Amino acid sequence: MKKIASSAALSGRVERIAQRDRPDNWKKPPRRIEKSECITCDTCLRSCPAEFGAIFDRGLDVVIIPELCSGCPACVLECPVDCIYVDEDWTPTDDAMWNHIELTAKGA
Length: 108
Fold this sequence. Notes:
Blueprint: H1 7-19, E1 31-33, H2 43-47, E2 55-58, E3 61-64, H3 74-78, E4 84-86, H4 95-106
Antiparallel strand pairs: 1-4, 2-3
């Protein structure tokens, strides 16, 4: 059974989306999905805790937004093909993806 995130936790996500940055106090690096190994089953997307909501289906790819990913292992534990890895060298998310995220966040 999935826990329902508190409104405070969800407002933290909205703030991270507005700032487009990872909190400095998150010590674990974000995760990344290896596209060549991913079967686009969306299991990771469904397992990502709502207070992070870091995983998005982008058509043919499923992506983790590093600025929203706390580095928790929830998606890793559920992935049936083990295609999710630690991303020590993550790069900032592009504006087009942020625009998509902002549109979907407003509808939530």
